[in-house]
UniProtKB/TrEMBL annotation:
A Pfam family of this chain: DUF7387
Phylogenetic placement of the source organism: Archaea, Methanobacteriati, Methanobacteriota, Stenosarchaea group, Halobacteria
Official protein name in the record: Type II toxin-antitoxin system HicB family antitoxin
InterPro entries named in the record: DUF7387, TTHA1013/TTHA0281-like
Amino acid sequence: MAGATRDAHDGEGVEFIHEDDGSITAKDIETGVASFGDTKAEALRMLAEAIELHEGGGEPIDDEEAFLKEIGIDPDEIEDAGEPPWE
């Protein structure tokens, strides 16, 4: 069974959840964004990246097909679901 610890003050900070598989989830209490890793340090590093992306950081994807190929997905093997709901 997973357990949780909080390093938080006034609704800010990070909640650590120790998962049954040994991984640790780090959840930003203010935004609700979460990520995981094998250690607290790795979970925090991944959480920082996730928060940056959540807040609009990172690079925009100009060529979806090239991006999918770069991460190992064949664009011809996925169904087109149409436009995302936010567009």
